[in-house]
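Quick note —
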Amino acid sequence: MKDRKKDKFNEHKPDYQDKDILDETSAADIEEVAPENESDEEQGLEAEVLKLNEELEHVRASVEKEKKEYMFLMAEFDNFRKRTLKEKSEIIKNAGEQVLKGLLPILDDFERGIEAADKTDNANSVKEGMVLIYNKFKKFLEQNGVKEIYPEDRDFDTERHEAISVVPVAADDQKGKILDTVQKGYTINDKVLRHAKVVVGQ
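Predicted structure written out below.
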């Protein structure tokens, strides 16, 4: 009777030896699968690295291209700047030459006037010659943008006038007014070339 109970117990008792075999099999399967997973990850990383390297090379090529274009533009700008400075210098030089060339006929008139003054005692004729030369010279200056400043009876303006003397005045309407011009002032193209030296009422 006892032997029958023992046999029934053994039928339901787990076979621990079989369990160890299953555990070993599962571990072996895991070991076989793990390398495959690791290989997939490595391949994925390699592909990502290749992709990044390609993008890096593309960026480098783009930067190199832009660098060359920038250097080209800088060279063009430097040439433009030099060319502009040269043209500006030539314009100033030629403008100065034209002004001096325009003064030569007036110089000729002065020489002729001096020769005529040596040959005559008539002061009026000498004066008339000087007036003609003066008007000719003044017209030449006006043609080149030089104009005289007429400050008399006008308000004193520090931008155009230089006060060399201040005179007390009785009339209020004369205060701050220009009473006399000691030296004429001139403008060139509306810019002050020389301030007029004046006497101002106070």
